[in-house]
Amino acid sequence: MANKAQIPTNNSALIAMIADEDTITGFLLAGVGNVDLRRKTNYLIVDSKTTIKAIEDAFKEFTTKEDIAIVLISQYVSCYLS
After folding, report:
1. Domain of 37?
2. Is residue 63 a contact partner of residue 72, using CB atoms and an 8 Å limit?
3. Is residue 1 part of a domain?
4. What is the DSSP string of 2-39?
5. Residue 54 gets which letter from DSSP?
6. 19 Cβ neighbours under 8 A, 6+ residues apart
7. CATH number at residue 31
8. What does the alpha-carbon distance between residue 8 and residue 51 come to, in Å, rounded to a whole number?
9. Is residue 63 part of a domain?
10. Tens-digit pLDDT profile for residues 10-32
11. Is 37 inside a domain boundary?
12. Considering the domain boundaries, does residue 38 fall inside one?
């Protein structure tokens, strides 16, 4: 497998996550986490202290970034918003 040629791509797509700590931890352990050059992550950990404005701002940021293809919002967060 070491001699297998890599398929060249011009860009890559990321998954952004807005979820509770356990869900984020699982995805990070699976290798989904990313930190860009500006030290911005592709996830927001939501707990009881997270404001709705912070969640909305993260959603707007994730949906405007060109390298993010999917924004995953956990059921915990969706129930928190309603």
Report:
1. 14-81
2. no
3. no
4. TTPPPPP-S---EEEEEE-HHHHHHHHHTT---B-TT-
5. H
6. 27, 43, 44, 45, 46, 72, 73, 74, 76, 77
7. 3.40.50.10580
8. 41
9. yes
10. 667 889 999 999 999 999 999 99
11. yes
12. yes
Judge if pTM exceeds 0.85. no
Q: Which residues contact 47 (CB under 8 A, 6 or more apart)?
A: 20, 21
Helices vs strands, H then E, count in the chain: 3, 3
Structure tokens at 44: 């927001």
Which residues are CB-contacts of 64 (< 8 A; sequence separation ≥ 6)? none
Q: Kindly state the tokens that stand for 11.
A: 């860009």
Domain count, the chain: 1
Report phi then psi at 29, rounded to 5: -65, -25
- Residue 38 CA to residue 35 CA, distance in Å, equals 8
